[in-house]
């Protein structure tokens, strides 16, 4: 077996050193009824690289990739180009095969990249501080809600009608388990400001999203003002991190906590994970944050160095009094994020955002020119909702037959709602003029 | 003969002056590396993008007031930045990484290759199900392996890491209690004092109350105390127990514990962090477990990546299976399909934990690993992991103090009893760095004084183990003799001991530009 270095002779010699007759001695404490004597049935035996690679390649070949043809699916994960050097950097053994940096003297590589990551995320979101990542955007959102309840000592959370329904579900789950009341406003394409009318003295936070699940961008400042007036917090959510290059960031709108998905920067789609949750907040809330934080300090020689810090918030120190149960986060995805962002630079990041927006404007123009199509999203970044006279599920299936993967139907995300004819479509820097023309042509045929 | 030394081969020169400082701040191959904010520029880039047309927008004025001040680097500068930083990290690929309870085993490169196949890496979680049949088949195949290896009937695949798997299992228990009408009355969860911090933290996140059970002299659950806690009340929701436990020992009474918990009306959550010790030899399903997460990034070799991403599929018993979270994959006559909504067949699901379907990239790696080892190889994995740990325990028990008598499972636990006054576990750990190793897990589990928990895993050769044991034995001997040089360790690492107290007192969590006066003074 190619991953096992011990030889039969080694094993015998080691058993002799230990004074054991066989490895069975080590399993003496296992109750007899639970001991497996032979090998486990119903599973194949070991195989060489070639056979395994063929098996995986056969499964992979059954999937249609996002690069194969015109592709417009977004709704929380986005097809972007990742520079070749990013993947090379994250495959460096010293990053790939190391652990959480608990021994800072031999983990400065990981720690410095996390410090740079935190600084970049704080800068993008225009917030004071950011942590070293969460699992993904949806779990960041859930953690933000319970954090707001800790901070305000209140137990009510209000979610906008444009919050990604999966984020809303993850948030509802965690909140309800902790006895927190959750109010979900009615799904609306342009309804984020409605949050301002649903804050009272019992509200811990309101959760709004921009761009929201329908792609609508909204300045949440009036919501922040309404929340702060009642001493509640604004949690500002985004699922498309590239939007922050162009769209008003959470910090400029008065958000107290900003959370979002970082997949768009540096990370491939990979069917939904692993991704990287971004989590930022104001300075005064820092000690209530979940997750790991990297901080600057000095070593015994007085040289600058970095360490994990404020760990008294965390489960391995505080156990049942921790701010969260999170342990492993998304370290390597955060590295991909920070490396890609470093390659882009501020100007490149803004340019990337502009290209995304222009692609979406082109797409909207082309689809609006198809008779029967109505774009519903009033202000958007790189994603918008549109309506046709035909059921969206049928439209997407007919588009698929024509080689166009046209987006996500709203009814898949909001099954109980009356948006049966609505499709949410995204365009990015990967979208070509040919893709857009193919989409418009196919749509014209099917509606 | 290189061009640089034409006709002048170098030879060692006897010199008595040693160089301690350099102008560059580098130390030979250990190069100084500044922060990107100190060397990059806003308009510098390593990505060539087309120029935007900027002839219109549909943002409705919702635009950034101030551009970011993010620095950029060209590709050669960026590559060097990360390469230089990488050289300040220790990693499994450099040597033994004996962190107890973390299972730092070799990460096969075939896993990485498979995960990067476009058919896995370049598919979207919300694209039509017709176009992702291979992905759903892979999830189903991995689920079959996990169910078979654990002897459990169901598995929830979406949890993103071990602690998230714990959350999954405990929320399933919560939902089962609610379905029984006992959601409000059964709130108490028993957690051994030796448990990972995530266990009590998870129970609290789910709205439970934690009741700690002591360890007995053998490092196992104190059965007398457990019985006492179960007899007196009827508010037990369940128990969270790690097996093999964090002392590196199999819980001898585990079957009885399961029976007692079930008789008391509770459920048995097993923390599967240490599954590597028993995979192929013991099925948790045969022990009465109701839920257990599996760390794919431990037992099944997906890389730790400096702190994630992990993946924590959670196996469930028949009693808990109906409450599994959405989404999940089912197979029917038309192929594979996703169940995404809490209705119909999933009407009892406790909810949705994450945006999409779990850690697909980790699923591909884990399945690649399983297929490579096969059922026969996985059994050998457990046996070699346990053999290696016992070998270390055996070789070091003369110079260190084993925490408990008898054989261990996959990790060997020592207390600091053997050290001289003034020498602590942390000094031994830091001295090990000078010997070229990552330290063991220190001060955990909490039930052993100055704990040192060593898990070598099965991917170490006997030669590596011997080298490690020689090094640690030498450090331990110094510790027993009170050698003061240990207090200053590490001496040879990229950094000296770091001031964590200072970092926490006045946290600096991001780079800020130096004050203008400071620049002027330079």
Task: Describe the protein's architecture and organization.
Chain A has 447 residues and is α/β, with parallel strands linked by helices. Chain A has helices spanning 8-18, 49-60, 84-90, 93-96, 108-125, 137-152, 165-177, 221-229, 315-318, 331-368, 392-401, 410-413, 433-446, and strands at 129-130, 156-159, 181-184, 205-209, 233-238, 257-261, 277-281, 294-298, 304-308, 374-375, 383-387, 408-409, 422-426. Chain A folds into 3 domains: 8-54, no CATH class; 84-340, Type I PLP-dependent aspartate aminotransferase-like (Major domain) (Aspartate Aminotransferase, domain 2, 3-Layer(aba) Sandwich); 346-446, Aspartate Aminotransferase, domain 1. Helix content of chain A is 36%, strand content 12%. In chain A, the strands form 3 sheets. Chain A has a 7-stranded mixed beta sheet, with helices on both faces. In chain A, a hairpin with a 7-residue loop joins strand 10 (374-375) and strand 11 (383-387). In chain A, helix 3 runs antiparallel to helix 10 (331-368), helix 5 runs parallel beside helix 10 and helix 6 packs across helix 7 (165-177). Chain A is globular, with a radius of gyration of 25 Å. The mean pLDDT of chain A is 97. Chain B is 32% helix and 10% strand. Chain B has a domain at 112-370: 3-Layer(aba) Sandwich (Aspartate Aminotransferase, domain 2). The longest helix of chain B has 37 residues, at 360-396. Chain B is globular. Chain B has helices spanning 36-39, 75-86, 109-115, 118-121, 133-150, 162-179, 198-205, 223-231, 254-263, 360-396, 425-434, 462-481, 500-505, 516-521; strands spanning 154-156, 188-192, 209-213, 236-242, 267-271, 291-293, 314-316, 328-332, 335-339, 401-402, 412-415, 441-442, 452-454.
Condensed summary:
The complex is a heterodimer of chains A (447) and B (522). Chain A has 447 residues and is of the alpha/beta class.
């Amino acid at each position: 077996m190619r991953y096992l270095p011990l030889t039969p002779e080694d094993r015998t010699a080691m058993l002799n050193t230990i004074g054991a007759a066989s490895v069975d001695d080590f399993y003496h404490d296992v109750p007899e009824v639970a001991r497996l004597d032979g090998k486990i049935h119903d599973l194949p035996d070991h195989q060489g690289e070639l056979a395994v690679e063929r098996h995986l390649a056969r499964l992979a070949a059954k999937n249609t990739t996002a690069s194969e043809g015109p592709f417009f699916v977004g709704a929380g994960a986005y097809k972007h180009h990742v520079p070749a050097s990013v993947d090379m950097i994250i495959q460096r053994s010293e990053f790939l095969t190391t652990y959480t940096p608990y021994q800072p003297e031999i983990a400065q590589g990981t720690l410095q990249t996390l410090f740079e990551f935190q600084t970049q995320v704080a800068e993008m979101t225009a917030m004071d501080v950011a942590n070293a990542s969460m699992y993904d955007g949806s779990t960041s959102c859930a953690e933000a809600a319970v954090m707001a309840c800790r901070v305000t000592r209140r137990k009510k959370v209000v979610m906008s009608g444009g919050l990604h329904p999966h984020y809303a579900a993850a948030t509802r789950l965690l909140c309800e388990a902790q006895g927190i009341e959750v109010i979900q406003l009615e799904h609306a394409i342009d309804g984020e400001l409605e949050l301002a009318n649903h804050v009272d003295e019992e509200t811990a936070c309101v959760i709004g999203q921009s761009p929201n699940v329908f792609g609508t961008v909204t300045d949440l400042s009036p919501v922040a003002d309404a929340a702060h007036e009642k001493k509640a917090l604004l949690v500002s959510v985004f699922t498309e991190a590239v939007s922050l290059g162009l769209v008003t960031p959470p910090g400029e709108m008065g958000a107290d906590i900003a959370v979002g998905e970082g997949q768009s920067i540096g990370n491939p789609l990979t069917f939904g994970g692993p991704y990287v949750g971004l989590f930022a907040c104001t300075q005064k809330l820092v000690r209530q944050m979940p997750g790991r934080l990297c901080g600057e300090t000095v070593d015994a020689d007085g040289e600058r160095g970095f360490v994990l810090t404020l760990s008294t918030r965390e489960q391995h120190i505080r156990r049942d009094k921790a701010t969260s149960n999170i342990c492993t986060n998304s370290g390597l995805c955060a590295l991909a994020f920070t490396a890609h962002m470093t390659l882009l630079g501020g100007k490149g990041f803004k340019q990337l955002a502009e290209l995304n927006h222009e692609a979406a404007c082109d797409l909207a123009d082309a689809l609006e020119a198809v008779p029967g199509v109505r774009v519903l999203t009033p202000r958007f970044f790189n994603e918008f909702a549109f309506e046709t006279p035909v059921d969206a599920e049928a439209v997407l299936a007919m588009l698929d037959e024509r080689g166009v993967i046209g987006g996500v139907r709203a009814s898949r995300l909001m099954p109980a709602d009356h948006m049966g004819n609505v499709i949410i479509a995204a365009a990015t820097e990967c979208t070509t003029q040919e893709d857009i023309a193919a989409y418009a042509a196919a749509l014209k045929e099917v509606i | 003969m290189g061009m640089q030394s034409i006709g002048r081969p170098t030879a060692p020169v006897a010199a008595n002056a040693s160089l301690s400082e350099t102008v560059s701040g580098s130390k030979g191959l250990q190069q100084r590396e500044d922060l990107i904010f100190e060397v990059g520029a806003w308009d510098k880039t390593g990505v060539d993008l087309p120029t935007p047309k900027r002839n219109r927008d549909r943002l409705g004025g919702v635009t950034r007031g101030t551009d970011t001040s993010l620095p950029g680097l060209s590709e050669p500068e960026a590559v060097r930045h990360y390469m230089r930083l990488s050289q300040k990290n220790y990693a499994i690929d450099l040597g033994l990484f004996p962190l107890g309870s973390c299972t730092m085993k070799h990460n096969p490169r075939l896993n990485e290759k498979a995960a990067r196949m476009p058919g896995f890496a370049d598919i979207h979680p919300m694209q039509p199900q017709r176009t992702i049949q291979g992905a759903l088949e892979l999830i189903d195949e991995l689920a079959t392996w996990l169910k078979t290896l654990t002897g459990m009937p169901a598995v929830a695949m979406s949890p993103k890491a071990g602690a998230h798997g714990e959350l999954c299992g405990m929320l399933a228990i919560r939902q089962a209690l609610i379905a029984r009408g006992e959601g409000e009355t059964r709130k108490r969860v028993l957690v051994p004092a030796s448990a990972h911090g995530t266990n009590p933290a998870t129970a609290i996140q789910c709205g439970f109350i934690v009741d700690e059970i002591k360890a007995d002299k053998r490092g196992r659950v104190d059965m007398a105390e457990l019985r006492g806690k179960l007899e007196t009340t009827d508010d037990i929701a369940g128990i969270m127990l790690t097996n093999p436990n964090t002392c590196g020992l199999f819980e001898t009474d585990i079957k009885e514990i399961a029976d007692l918990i079930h008789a008391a009306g509770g459920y048995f959550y097993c923390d599967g962090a240490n599954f590597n010790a028993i995979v192929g030899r013991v099925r948790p399903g045969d022990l009465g477990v109701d839920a257990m997460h599996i760390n794919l990034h431990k037992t099944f070799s997906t890389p730790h990546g400096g702190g994630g991403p992990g993946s924590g599929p959670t196996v469930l018993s028949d009693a808990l299976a109906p409450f599994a979270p959405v989404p999940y994959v089912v197979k029917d006559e038309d192929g594979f399909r996703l169940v995404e909504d809490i209705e119909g067949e999933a009407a009892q699901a406790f909810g949705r934990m994450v945006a999409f379907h779990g850690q697909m990239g980790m699923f591909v790696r884990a399945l690649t690993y399983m297929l490579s080892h096969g059922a026969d190889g996985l059994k050998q994995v457990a046996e070699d992991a346990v053999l290696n740990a016992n070998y270390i325990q055996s070789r070091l028990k003369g110079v260190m103090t084993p925490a408990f008598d008898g054989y261990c499972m996959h990790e060997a636990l020592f207390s600091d009893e053997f050290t001289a006054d003034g020498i602590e576990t942390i000094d031994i750990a830091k001295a090990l760095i000078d010997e070229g190793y990552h330290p063991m897990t220190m001060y955990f589990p909490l039930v052993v004084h100055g704990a040192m928990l060593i898990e070598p895993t099965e991917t170490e050769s006997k030669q590596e183990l011997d080298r490690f044991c020689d090094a640690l034995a030498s450090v331990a001997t110094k510790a027993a003799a009170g050698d003061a040089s240990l207090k200053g360790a590490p001496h040879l690492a990229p950094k000296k001991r770091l001031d964590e107290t200072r970092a926490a007192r006045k946290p600096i969590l991001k780079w800020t530009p130096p004050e203008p006066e400071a620049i002027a003074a330079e």
